[in-house]
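JOB MANIFEST
job_type = single_chain_structure
chain_count = 1
residues = 354
[input]
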Amino acid sequence: MLATTRRSRKNGAGRTITAVLLDSLPLECLTAASRHSAVLARLGCRTLGDVRKLPRGGMARRFDAALLESLDRAYGLRPDSYEWLRSPDTFEASLELMSRVETAPALLFGARRLLLQLSGWLSARRSGVMAFTLHWAHDAMRSRETGEGGARTVRTAQTTRNIEHLSRLLAEQLAKVRLEAPVGDLRLTADEVHPLIENSASLLPDPQEKVESLALALERIAARLGPDRVRRPRVRADHRSEWMGWWQACEEPMPRTQPEPPPVPQPTFLLPEPLELAVKANRPLYQGPLQLLVGPHRVEGGWWHRSGTGAEAQSLNVARDYWVALSAHAGVLWVFQTRLAGDQGAWFLHGVFA
C-alpha cells in the first residue's frame, strides 16, 4: 500500500488518487477500525474518510493508538512495521503416518519429511546437527506385551544439515531395527545443535561437490557396521614414534588443528615392537652391516606416561638416539640406539622407509 501511494498521482484538489479510493471504503476493511465500529457508527462515521475527519487528539484519547497507526500505514503516511519470525530454541516435530507401518525401513518415507523440517529450522538458525533421534509410537491396538514405541539416535562426526547424508545414515540405522508392532506416529528431535560455518556458494557447478568426502563415507560405513568397527588415524603431539599416531572412533570429531610435523625424517612403516639388532665392531647388523646416513636425533621423555594401573604400572620413558641407516639388501631403515650406563647402548630396528 505504501508503494502504491508513493507512485499515485494527485488530483486537482492536491489529494492522491489512492487516498480518494480509501476514503470510500467501509470500516470493515480496516481491522483496527472494525473493532470500534459500534462507537464510530454512533459518531456518524461510515467510511474510512469519515474517521480521518475526526480530530486526532480526541481519537488518541478516546481510542487506542493502534487505530491512528493503522490509518497512517494504510494511507502511506507511516512505514509498515513487521515482527521478525523467530524460530524456537529447540526442535521437535511430529508426524502421523497415513497408514500403519510394519517394517522399520519403511519409516524412512515419513522421517524424511521431518528431516526437511529440521533442515529448515537449522538454516534459519545458521546451525547444523551432530545428533538427532527418531522416535516412533506403536499402534494403540498392539498387544499388551509390546511397549509403547522405540527410538534410534543418529550421530555424525561433523556438524551438518545435509538432508541426503542424514537420510542415508538414518536408513542404515533403521535397517537394523525390527518393529515389535505396527507404527502410527513419528517424532524427530535435535539432540546436539552447533553453529555451522558454510563456504560461499558458486553459480557455476563445482565438480568437487559431486565427490563424496571421506568423512561422509566413513560415517555411512560406521552406521552399517557399527561405530566400534570403523576407526580413522590421528596424529598426536608426541615426539616418541610409538605414540605419535593412534586410531580413534569414526564418530569422534577430529581436532581443528593438527600438530606440527617433526623436523626429522619419519619412516613410512613402523614395526609393532622394536627389533633388537646384532652388533659387530660397534656397528649394527641387519642383513649385513648398516651404513649410518643421518643422525643422531635424540628422543628423550615420557616419564609421565605409564602403562597399566596400580602396582603393575610401568613407566614408558625412553632415551634413544635415532639414525637413518642404509642396508644393501633391506633399503633405508630407521634405527635407534638406547642410551645406557657407560654408553654401551643396544641397537634396534624401529621402521622402514618406502
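[summary]
The longest helix spans residues 108-124.
DSSP finds ten helices and 15 strands in the chain.
exit_status = 0
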